[in-house]
Amino acid sequence: RGKRAFIAGVADDNGYGWAIAKSLAAAGAEILIGTWVPALNIFESSLRRGKFDESRKLPDGSLMEITKVYPLDAVFDSLDDVPEDVKTNKRYAGSSNWTVQEVAESVKQDFGSIDILVHSLANGPEVTKPLLETSRKGYLAAISASSYSFVSLLKHFLPIMNPGGASISLTYIASERIIPGYGGGMSSAKASLESDTRVLAFEAGRKHKIRVNTISAGPLGSRAAKAIGFIDMMINYSLANAPLQKELHAEEVGNAAAFLVSPLASAITGAVVYVDNGLNAMGVGV
Ligand code: NAI
């Protein structure tokens, strides 16, 4: 049978999560999606109304099928963690079973198992603030949504992942080099995510024969990136300075992800793989 993938962090057709879903679908995988609760209604109604039909097109001309969309808020592990104001918030009250543990349980009930887990989500409420001006709350929120969310997802999905399966997340070079403007503790969150990729590769590899890698992606004008405010500058910087002076297409990251979670990459785990037109290799701008 084909592989089954759960992709956390898709709420429109612009981001890396959508592109990864498409590459996996093109390779024959069944697609399940986890969408942030506040974004769920718009995403589902846009899907239904055919707003994404053009971008659902796969290389063979067919349209990507999404078998099921699950509401998800990856900053909450179980119902006990959800504060009253969120429970009663009208954007949340309309959905249920959206904590990480509950989503994993729902997927288990619906499908039994998965082969591929994709983490394509991040959030840093103070991302536009320099680190020196970031509050403890903002910093911890960035880590919670952008790093621990991966630990939690892997922890809860591992028991239903078939041995030989793989997970992938998305990181950014601001973890290891200074990228002014990527603030609010988001650079710290990406450093955690990359370090955790190694430790989790060990733990999930030994325990469940699951591979864990992360893609360090170049700049893309996604919804999340536009919220940071400097994305056009980063795209232009890459165009001017990267070894490959071309636009970076989300599809290129999607294809790399599809490779990394496939048997073609069966000996690759614990790795940070750059998909950035080579920008990471430059020592100076030219
Ligand atoms: P995006 O906006 O398509 O994806 C981010 C998703 O995270 C959104 O769908 C949002 O609803 C979801 N999300 C936020 N908080 C959540 C939560 N608590 N629970 C569940 N979902 C939540 O944007 P993009 O840029 O494609 O982001 C995907 C990943 O790629 C992120 O990890 C990002 O840091 C990473 N990345 C993006 C780059 C870029 O230039 N766009 C560069 C390198 C990495």
In short:
The chain is α/β, with parallel strands linked by helices and 286 residues long. It contains ten helices and seven strands. Helix 1 (16-26) crosses helix 10 (250-260), helix 5 packs parallel to helix 6 and helix 6 (136-157) packs parallel to helix 7 (186-208).
Topology:
Blueprint lengths: L3 E5 L7 H11 L3 E7 L3 H9 L17 E7 L11 H5 L1 H4 L6 H12 L2 E6 L16 H22 L3 E11 L14 H23 L2 E7 L5 H6 L2 H11 L8 H11 L11 E4 L11
Helix pairs in contact: 1-10, 5-6, 6-7
Bound molecules: 1,4-dihydronicotinamide adenine dinucleotide.
1,4-dihydronicotinamide adenine dinucleotide (NAI) binds next to α1, β5 and α8.
List keywords for this structure.
286 residues; alpha/beta; seven-stranded parallel β-sheet; globular
Number of helices: 10
Share in β-strands? 15-25%
Stretches with pLDDT under 50, minimum 5 residues: none
Order of helices and strands: EHEHEHHHEHEHEHHHE
Ligands, deduplicated? 1,4-dihydronicotinamide adenine dinucleotide
Strand count: 7
Give the radius of gyration: 18 Å
Question: What is the averaged pLDDT score?
Answer: 97
Overall morphology: globular
How many angstroms does the end-to-end distance come to?
A: 49 Å
Helix content bin: 25-40%
What about the largest sheet? 7 strands, parallel
Which structural class is indicated by helix and strand composition?
A: alpha/beta
For the biggest β-sheet, the strand order reads 3-2-1-4-5-6-7
